[in-house]
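Propose amino acids for all 318 sites.
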């Protein structure tokens, strides 16, 4: 007996031939190494967990610890002349306000389907929500002039800044377009905007109905010293509005949309460009391709409009 074991497996024999003390020391070192590896891994996992949690909590924490962050969501297509005026002017306007950080998201819809302001706002929200606490759904051609127009955090309910009392063009009571501020929690609560409104108009009326149905109060600026001629600048440069609606489209869109919104928006981001205008004013342009189910909303297609345009004005129901 030599105090050493033997094995059928030759490489193992090499180890077994070593003195017992060396063997034990080796095993001990290997164990320590494994222990070290395991604790390092646990540490890493904890770090990851911490990141995920702090991200999930970031909204609540920031509302309380520092000033809420604003994401300016601009549904956009082919309005470059307006954009290069809008970003610098609104940036300057916001610098004079007592608000937290703000960031511009230019939501540039690809050519594929007709323009859809509501769906673009939903996409913008999804892009912005991790780094913002509230959003402004903002037309590119509407610029505030009166310094008393506040872009601060809308705590209690959506704040319709471009109120019909002060909008240069639209003054019907339920007008809800132009510029609207809403906090992230409430935008989620009402499932954002409808995705069905391809073409110009009515998406803001549906949004109004959603807010009312959720019993949120609608707030608007009051008692401004200015009027409809000098509260906002509407730099709408003779842009034609794509306002065609077939009877079918009208029938569907007249009813409040309880099905579509943030929860089921489908899209892809084809590109992202950080742009600086006049050396100082930053914005990010997202090239967005919206999806469309052409069975449910055939009016999303450009040729849907042309198809009716080729017939007489009253033929569409046939
Ligand atoms: N818009 C755009 N390109 C279009 C249609 C609309 O960029 O082809 C965006 C833009 O932000 C615009 C907003 O949607 O300010 C509202 O459209 P528009 O100004 O035509 O409507 P209005 O409120 O003047 O009737
Ligand atoms: Mn306009």
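Proposal:
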């Amino acid at each position: 007996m030599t105090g050493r074991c033997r094995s059928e497996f030759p490489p193992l024999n090499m180890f077994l031939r070593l003195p017992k003390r060396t063997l034990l020391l080796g095993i001990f070192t290997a164990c320590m190494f494994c222990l070290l590896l395991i604790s390092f891994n646990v540490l890493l996992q904890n770090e990851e967990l911490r990141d995920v949690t702090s991200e999930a909590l970031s909204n609540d924490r920031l509302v309380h610890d520092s000033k809420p962050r604003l994401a300016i969501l601009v549904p956009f297509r082919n309005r470059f002349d307006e954009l290069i005026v809008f970003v610098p002017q609104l940036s300057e306007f916001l610098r004079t306000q007592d608000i937290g950080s703000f960031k511009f998201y230019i939501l540039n819809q690809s050519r594929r389907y007709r323009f859809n302001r509501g769906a673009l706002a939903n996409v913008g929200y999804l892009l912005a929500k991790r780094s913002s606490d509230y959003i402004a759904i903002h037309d590119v051609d509407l610029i505030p002039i009166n310094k008393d127009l506040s872009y601060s955090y809308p705590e209690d309910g959506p704040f319709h800044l471009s109120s019909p009392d002060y909008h240069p063009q639209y003054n019907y009571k339920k007008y809800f377009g132009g510029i609207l501020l809403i906090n992230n929690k409430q935008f989620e609560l009402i499932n954002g905007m409808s995705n069905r409104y391809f073409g110009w108009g009515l998406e803001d009326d549906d949004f109004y109905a959603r807010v009312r149905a959720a019993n949120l109060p609608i707030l608007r600026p009051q008692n401004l010293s200015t009027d409809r001629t000098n509260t906002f600048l509407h730099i709408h440069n003779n842009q034609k509005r794509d306002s065609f609606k077939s009877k079918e489209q009208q029938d569907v869109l007249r009813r409040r949309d309880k099905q579509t919104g943030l929860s089921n928006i489908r899209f892809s981001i084809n590109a992202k460009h950080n742009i600086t205008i006049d050396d100082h004013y930053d914005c990010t342009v997202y090239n967005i391709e919206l999806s469309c189910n052409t069975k449910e909303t055939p009016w999303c297609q450009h040729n849907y409009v042309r198809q009716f345009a080729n017939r007489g004005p009253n033929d569409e129901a046939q």
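The first helix runs from residue 10 to 16. Residues 72-315 form a domain with the Spore Coat Polysaccharide Biosynthesis Protein SpsA; Chain A fold (CATH 3.90.550.10).
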